[in-house]
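Hey, why these numbers?
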Amino acid sequence: MALVRWTPKGGRNLVPQSGLANWMTDWDGLFNDFFGRESTSGCSCMPAVDVNEKDNHYTVRVDLPGLKKDDIKLTFENDVLTITGERKAEKEEKEGRFFHSERFVGTFARSLRFPSDVDPSQIDASFHDGVLEVKLAKSETAMVRQIEVK
């Protein structure tokens, strides 16, 4: 699985992007121009995600500050991990008014496609200090192994 460095819109990418990443950026731009809004990839409503691959598993880490584990749902279907959740509004202030507000309130969903080597029965998730960690084990047949030449 190739990982591509993400940079906010307008940022400079020091790592060459893959053809797919370039295509997705162009596609986002098409929708941004049409709907007159910022792409969801740069939106604060989309949680930041890191995906790490090791020989025997993938690790996904998602920043979800202010959420509780009961606010998060995970599904894995057709090699796609979908993370959904809801950040609920805090109790409304009785006095004063907002001077400035940027914090997202509402639902979100992130879907990540994985290679077909993930074993769906070996997926574990934990949530600590606002960070969701999902470990997706690779199936035994897909793991890389060294072969001795005789």
Notes: Residues 19-35 form the longest helix (17 residues). The two ends are 31 Å apart (CA to CA).
